[in-house]
Structure formats: C-alpha cells, structure tokens
C-alpha cells in the first residue's frame, strides 16, 4: 500500500542505500571536519550573526522542499504517500551525495573540508534539481530508478553549474538556469529514455480527486510563501537581498492573478483548473530568479511574473498534449511548463536587463 | 469541480482581473521605484538589519494568511478547494489594490513611491480585512462578487484606519479595531446586502465532516502559532515588541483552555464542538491586539484571553442563531464571534488600560 | 464526533480546567510581573537582539509541537481530530502548569517573577515531556485522565531535570535524557498503571488508512524540518549553536536513509512500513540532543543518526510486540522506540564523547 515494490529483487533498494551510507561514513571520517572553535569573542559574534542571518532562510527552504514540494506531488490520490516518501528520500540522498562530490572537488584543491551551514545549503540547492527532474516520471519509476537518476544528475548539475557560473560568469542567484532549466530538460531526457517505446496510458490511479487536489494546493501555497527565501538566501546582504525579496514577492503575486485570468479564459466553462493554479502561481518565482537582485524597476518584476504565469498555463493547455502526442514524451507533473518555459523566459529577461541596466548606474 | 462558475458570463472574472493587472502594470511603470542602492557600508548594514528584523515576521504572517486562514476555511468538505483558492486570489488582489491606493495617496504628497518591505507589509494588513469579511459569505458568493467586495473594502479600510490612527490618535498595533472590528461589521453588512431577502437554507454541501474539520483545525493551529508575529511586527523593537509577543502568547494560551471549558459546559453531552475550538482558540489574539505592547501586568493578558474565548463561544451558541432568526443575517464562518465580539472586548480593555496605566509610570 | 466523552460525569473536565484557570489568574496576579521598561538605548538594543535571536527558534518549536506533533498523532483515522485537540490542550495546560511551578520555586528564592521569552521556552520544554508520554496511551484515555497525567508529570520532570542538570552536572542541550528518556519511561509507567489488567484488543478504529498515514507523515516531516531549532535554541550562541544545528541536520539526514534501509530489509515484501518512516526519521534528532554542541567530528553525528534509526526500526519490529506479549505493556505510538531507545543510545554516545574529547583540546 505504501511504496510500490522495487521491480523484483526486493533487496536492491536497501543494498544500494546501505552501501551509500557506508561510503558516506567513510568519506566523512577521512575528510570532513568542523572549523576550530573560534578563540576570540569577535569571531564568536561573527559566527552567531552568520547563523542568525542564514539559518531562518535555510529552514524556510527545508520547509519548501520537504513539506511544500512533497505535498504538491500528492495530487495522485493513491500515490500520495509514496510521492511524499520518495521526495523525502531523494532529498536526503541527493544532499548527501552532493556533499560528497563537492567535498571531493574541494579536497583536491584545499585538503580537509570544513563543514558549515553554507556548504549544506549549496548541497541542498543541488538536491533541488533532482526533486524537480523526477516530477516528469512521478509514479512511473521504482525507488531504485529514482536513486539512479539522482546519482547521475548531481554530478551533471555540479559540472553544468561550474560551467555556467564560474566559466561563463553568469549571475543566477535564484537558480533560474542552473537549477530550473537544467533540471527540467534533464528530467524530460530521463522520461524519454526510461519510457521511450511505450505510449503509456494513464494509470487508473492517476486521476486527482477533490481532496488530493486540496492537499496539492496546500503544497503550492507553502512553496509560494517561502519562495522569496529561496531566491534571496545567496544574495549579498543589504540592498541586493532586500530587492530580491521584493522582486520575488511582486513576481509571484502577479503570477497568481495572471494564472486565474489565463486559466479561466482557456477552460471552456470558465472554471479554474486545479493543475494550472498549482503550477502557474509559482511560475513567477522560477522566472524571477536570475534578475531578482538586479537594479531594475519594480514593474519589471510584475511583468515577468505575469508573463511567466501566462506561458506556464498555455504550456499546460497546448504544449504538454502536443509533446505527448508527437514525441511520446510524458511529463507527469508538467515540469516543462513550470520550470522549463518560465526559466527560459527569465533567462531572456536577464539578457534584456543586462543590456538595459548598465546605462543607468554608469 | 474546482471553483463555482461565475454567474453566467464566464468571461467576467478574467476580464475584471486582466484589466486590473494591466492598470497595476501601468501604475508601477509611472510611479513606483526602489530606493537608490546604499552607497555607504553603514547604510548597507542598516538595510540588512531591517531585512533580518522584519522579514521573518513577514513570512510568518504570509503563512498565517495563505496557509492557515486558507485551511481554516476548508471546513465545508466539498467547498474546500474553492475556499482555499478564493482566499489566495483575494489576498493577492487586495494586497496589490492596497499598494496602488496607498501609493496614490502618498504620490499626491511626496512624488514617486519608494517600495520597501514595510510598504508591502502595510498592504498585507489591509488585505487581511478582506479575507476576514468574506468569511461571512463563504460559499455563497461568486469570485466576481468577492472581488467587488475587495475593491470596495480596501479604500474604506484605508479611510477608516486613517481616521482612527491619524486623526483620533488611537494606538492599535495588533489591529483589534482597525482590522478585526472593522472587517467584521463590513462583512456582516455585505452579507446582509447580498442575501437580504433570502432566508437561505444551508446548502447540502455545507456540513463539515470529521476530515474537513481536521484540516480546518490545522489551519487554526497554524494561525495560533504565528499570531504573535502578526501582533508584534509593527511594535517598537525592544521592550515593547518583547511584551507584545509575551502578552499574545499568554492571551492565546488562556483562550485555548477557556474555549475547552466553555464549549464542554455548553454542549449537552460534554463533547467539544469543532467550530468552537477552531475559533475560540484564536479569540485571545484578536482581543489582545490593542493592548499588547502596553505596560500592563501579565495577568491582564491572561484574563483578556480567557474572557474573549468565553465571549466567542457564547456568541456561537446563542448570538449567531439569534441573528440568523431575527435579522436574517447569515454569518457563515461566525466572524462576528471571532472578530467582532473579542475585538470590542479588546477595545474596552484598552480604555481600561489607558485609564489605569498612567498612574504607574508618572 | 469530536472528543470522546469523559467517563460519565461530563462536568469533570470543565470543572478541573476552570479551577486551574482561576488558580493561574490568581497566581499571576500575585507573583508575576514584566521587567521594568529599559531606560537606556543600549538595553533596548540588547532586548531587541535577544528577541531576534530567540523568537524565530521559539516559533519553530511551537510549529513542531502544535502542528507537527499534532499531525503525527492523527494516524488513527477516526481518532485524528481528538488526537490533534488533546495534543493542543495538553500543550497549553502543561505549559501554564510548568510556568506556575517554576515560578513558585523561583519565588521562594528571589521574590517576584520576571516573565520573559526564555521562561516561556523552558516551560514549553517541560510541556514536551507530557506530549511524548501520552503517546503511549493515545486513544485509550479520557481528556481528564490525560490532564491528571500532565499534572503529575510536570513536577516530576522539574525535579528530575534539577537532579540531572544541576546536581549531577550533566549537559543535555537537546533534552535527550531529561526530556526524551524521562518522558518515555514515565509514559510507559502510566500505560502500565492505567491499563494493567486488560490485554486490550486493538480498538476497531485503530487501523491507519492511506490518507491518515499521509497526514501523519506530514507531521513527521514538519518535526524533521524544525528539529534543529529545538536542539540549538538553548546552546551558546556562536560556534556551539552552529555545531548543534549542523550535527542535528546530519544526524536526521542519516536517520531518514537508514530508516528506509532497515525497514525495507525487515518487511517481508520489501515495502516500507509507514510507521517505521514516521518514527525512524526522527530518531537521529532524539539521539543527537546530548552531544549536539560538543566538539566532535561530523562523522559521529552521521553514525549516531544511522544507529538510532536502526535501533528504532528494530524496536518497532521486535521489541514492541514482545513488550505487549510478555509485560502486557501497550505503547500505542511506539514512544519506547522513538524516544526510549535512541535516547539511551544518545546518552551512551555522550559518555563516549566525554571520555574521548578532553584529550584533544587539553
């Protein structure tokens, strides 16, 4: 009743995870330490301030990923418990795996790894990509398959993030490209690769009910509320962070209204589609990530939020069925509409912002 | 299945909202800017500190309004999804509308509007009044009607708040009068005006089930937990804010116990009524708002919390049926018991506190 | 429908609670005051900083206890609403009762009691013991019985905490022994004492459904997310608090993975047991409490988290049925597995840590 059984060797999942935990313990034993306790009172104050300025954001993001995203995935009534469980398992696994990989990279350059809250936060960001990607194959993959996806995706993400941020010098505080666009196309690729041949019919249990839609909407609302923390946590404290919070709030507020407009225009009887609402309200947060901390007028955030919600709803209405028919590409949660299209829009917006902005301050 | 269709022209809702979004964009383009980036390091620290001291409170309040209040309204099982959706839509619409109106008022006096977190917070407070008022007509009004209520209520609130706070000089950090009492009587007026003639029978879907009551109670608990943030966010940092938090905690704790006492005394079989618990536990928070930051002994907060819960439960048991029979006034969520009566009690308490207090410090 | 009726005198519960509220009001009138308002600007800043550094943690803990723990207890579908209600009532009652008792103790030594956020926090910690203990008799005791348990447990806790911390000098920031182990064995004792003779069959309504398991898991996840705040709130600001947060995060992350491993190895068909997941994921948080702020290598936190989750799952699989058969000891929520065994493990770990640690810094 709970988690669908792994294909037939029941022992594959515990074996895989058990080995991973063992390797993790070994890795931590050899390489990971905490900072030396700060000797001076000044340093102690500094650490305390860092904790107070980062930890609330960190907790907000944990709530988003564990509770908000988990609930968002429970819209398939009989698969709800499994979806929540898998999301939780994947988050933990991916975070640990990202910690190991980042540690190894760091180790080759600098020796022992000093663990702190910031490193955990970076690993958490890496884990987000996995949680987004598996939305494309929700309910159709075994836990083992999901773990293998995570195992492959984390190093790919770290490499792509390094190329985009360090090599190309792209600024992306909210992870619009590095997280959302990347994980969307990775997830679609996985979906295509795993379920290539089969023009699978929808599983009979895959129909949302009134009640499962309610739980899923609660998940959306939790994500909606805490999204500004996700975008702002890595910003420069002060004006940039303040602006990132405000821009995200504006973009998401505009998204919600535009989603209602677009959805009730597109549906024949003028009713809102729960799926549109659950996703469209968040599109602004995806799109704003790249430009959130830039010095742009507030109206740009509103416009971007509106536009991305419209694109997201249009995607659900027209693009998803098209992809399913033409490319036999199944996208169970519609990650292409929530993460792919608004992400590309956000990237385009950042290009415009960069082209326009320098004239003002210089 | 989701949102009940607007009367018969399905296009009214998107038309109305779409025009509003367009006007909002225009308004922001013309009038709203961010502060100039702070040039000096000191200013940056100041901004950062403001963000760290306001933003967690702001997030708490967002959780209250979006998740807590939304869930509280889901006690009608088949109307739950719509209630949550309407609450979310109204919050966004009202906040944007309050932002525009406040901006216009400000514009006539000072030119361009510098957007910051504090201004968003004030708009959010304005939006709360709408969310409370529509509780009286929950499940009986179309989305368009709800939006029209919001359109009218926000300017009325701003005017009344200006009269009460600026002209009369009333201190009301927690919004006991300006928010709770105002929105209660506004909501009752709307209910009377919209459903004047009809002695409507309860809709068949309007009977809470065990499960919908559980979700609604979760909403109450979320509101209960974060209420201190709502009351304390606008207080002077330091002692006043500390006292506001403590007083609110004491009042709400006393409310919960007294609700259980009052409810099990009034129900014939000694069982608790879910409706009493969902509302009475919060009555202390409504009543304490006006006196929360005053220098009064802690026992006053406890007594006020107890008293307001008792009044709230008595209201549900006796006053609501009476109003329905005598005045054909329907109050679906019992906002008169949760916001009206405890609000008046809190106002009376603040009069007493002002009369008694000056003797001590002088 | 809501709360099961108290045995037969329906008036016992309101009488008991009403008298308690009266006594509380009297006590507060006589003994409890707030601090004098700070005269100097420096003091005001100090108070403000205390509020900003404690209040977010305090709120996190409130969410854990009121929403998280409440939802965790809703796994019995028809008893869910009552479980949530009882949890909420007991939290408020126990906190107030602890405030009175601590106040009285303090009063005999120092005169009037100056209430502040820290004192409320300490009372909240005392209340946690009651919430844990009653897990053993969930659904089998009337509200009055639960309140009597709380009335007895709070003074016992205060005495035991005084002996352990003040007399024996044991450091236990996360309450591993003082809260978890204590309340576990107190709760088991209560269960034995109340239901001694009866080899009670499981009540027919005591079978979790898919949906009630989902809600319960959401409760677990909320507890999981905010647990670091619970462990770190009483730590020294700076390095110790930072370390406590990191250690708790690591331990709980390891717990979640190990729970999946252990549970799918033990269940015949390789499926996860919801009960294991709901409890095992939290075992690391229980065990880490005592050593969280010590200067130990990060791998120790991971190992402790893994070990405690394994012990917890093994306890559910083998020990709980054994205790039920041999000692007719019923432990409805399995508190012995979640709080007893991991707590003992954590205590053992702290002994090891103390024996090993001094060599390094000296």
TrEMBL record, chains A, B, C:
Q: Which GO terms describe its cellular component?
A: plasma membrane
- Please state the protein's primary subcellular location: membrane
Q: Does the keyword Transmembrane apply?
A: yes
Compartmental location: Membrane
- One GO MF term: ammonium channel activity
Give residue ranges for domain Ammonium transporter AmtB-like.
Answer: 24-354
Chain ranges passing through the membrane: 12-34, 54-76, 88-108, 120-139, 215-233, 245-266, 299-319, 339-357
Domain of life from the UniProt record:
Eukaryota
The UniProt entry, under InterPro entries, shows: Ammonium/urea_transptr (IPR029020), NH4_transpt_AmtB-like_dom (IPR024041), RhesusRHD (IPR002229)
Q: Name one Pfam family in it.
A: Ammonium_transp
Topology with regard to the membrane?
Answer: Multi-pass membrane protein
Which UniProt keyword terms apply here?
Membrane, Transmembrane, Transmembrane helix
Q: One GO BP annotation here?
A: ammonium homeostasis
Quick check: keyword Transmembrane in the entry? yes
Q: Which Gene3D superfamilies match?
A: Ammonium transporter AmtB like domains
Give the family, as the similarity comment puts it.
Belongs to the ammonium transporter (TC 2.A.49) family. Rh subfamily.
The record, for PANTHER family, names: AMMONIUM TRANSPORTER, AMMONIUM TRANSPORTER AMTB-LIKE DOMAIN-CONTAINING PROTEIN
Task: State the name under which the record lists this protein.
Answer: RHBGA protein
């Amino acid at each position: 009743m709970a988690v669908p059984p792994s294909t037939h060797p029941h022992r594959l999942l515990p074996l895989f995870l058990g080995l991973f935990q063992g390797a993790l313990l070994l890795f931590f034993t050899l390489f990971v330490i905490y900072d030396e306790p700060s000797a001076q009172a000044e340093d102690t104050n500094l650490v305390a301030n860092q904790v107070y300025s980062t930890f609330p954001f960190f907790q907000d993001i944990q709530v988003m990923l564990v509770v908000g995203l988990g609930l968002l995935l429970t819209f398939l009534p009989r698969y709800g418990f499994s979806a929540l469980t898998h999301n939780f398992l994947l988050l933990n696994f991916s975070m640990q795996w990202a910690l190991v990989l980042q540690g190894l990279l760091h180790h080759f350059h600098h020796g022992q790894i000093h663990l702190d809250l910031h490193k955990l936060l970076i690993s958490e960001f890496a884990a987000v990509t996995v949680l987004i990607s598996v939305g494309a194959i929700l309910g159709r993959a075994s836990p083992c398959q999901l773990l293998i996806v995570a195992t492959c995706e984390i190093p790919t993400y770290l490499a792509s993030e390094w190329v985009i941020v360090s090599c190309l010098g792209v600024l992306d505080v909210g992870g619009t490209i590095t997280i959302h666009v990347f994980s969307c196309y990775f997830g679609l690729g996985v979906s295509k690769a795993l379920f290539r041949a089969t023009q699978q019919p929808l599983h009979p249990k895959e129909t949302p009910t009134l009640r499962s839609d309610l739980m899923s909407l609660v998940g959306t609302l939790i994500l909606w509320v805490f999204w500004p923390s996700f975008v702002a946590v890595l910003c420069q404290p002060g004006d940039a962070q303040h602006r990132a919070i405000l821009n995200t709030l504006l973009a998401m507020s505009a998204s919600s209204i535009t989603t209602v407009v677009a959805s009730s225009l597109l549906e024949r009887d003028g009713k809102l589609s729960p799926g549109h609402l659950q996703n469209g309200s968040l599109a602004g947060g995806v799109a704003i990530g790249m430009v959130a901390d830039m010095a742009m007028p507030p109206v740009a955030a509103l416009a971007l939020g509106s536009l991305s919600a419209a694109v997201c709803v249009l995607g659900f209405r027209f693009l998803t069925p098209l992809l399913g028919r033409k490319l036999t590409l199944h996208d169970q949660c519609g990650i292409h509409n929530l993460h792919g299209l608004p992400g590309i829009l956000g990237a385009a917006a950042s290009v415009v912002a960069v082209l326009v902005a320098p004239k003002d301050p210089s």
